[in-house]
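Weekly sync, protein design subgroup
Attendees: M.S., D.O., the rotation student, P.L. (late)

Item 1: inverse folding check
M.S. brought a backbone from last month's batch and wanted to see whether the design step gives back something sensible before we order anything. D.O. pointed out we never logged the input encoding, so this time it goes straight into the notes. Structure tokens as presented (103 positions):
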């Protein structure tokens, strides 16, 4: 699914809450403390705990290697997120996370 945003600034809702990824190559969900659950796309802009921004890849605070077997695991974390509502054809809309900030 492709999402096209118009040129120029797009207002985002800034929220704190809990995010978790579903698995390798897929997105996840963000549940705002005071707000809706939002879709986290598989490729999302994110900043690490040092404030360095990344485009794509797995947000380090949400995805890590399990020391017991070396496999990647989705651990989830409290994060700050910027999300917006995306309109869908035929009516309706849903919240989509545009960036995450790891603690």
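Designed sequence read out in the meeting:
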């Amino acid at each position: 699914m492709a999402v096209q945003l118009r040129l120029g600034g797009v207002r985002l809702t800034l929220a704190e809450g809990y995010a978790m990824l579903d698995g390798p190559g897929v997105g996840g969900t963000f549940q705002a403390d005071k707000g809706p659950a939002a879709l986290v796309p598989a490729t999302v802009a994110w900043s690490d705990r040092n404030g360095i921004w990344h485009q794509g890849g797995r947000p380090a605070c949400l995805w890590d290697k399990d020391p017991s077997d070396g496999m990647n695991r989705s651990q989830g974390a409290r994060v700050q997120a910027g999300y917006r509502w995306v309109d869908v054809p035929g009516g309706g809309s849903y919240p989509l996370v545009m960036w995450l900030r790891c603690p």
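Discussion: The first strand starts at residue 13 and ends at 21. The beta strands are 13-21, 28-32, 37-40, 45-47, 53-55, 63-65, 72-74, 77-87, 93-101.
Action: P.L. to compare against the previous round before Friday.
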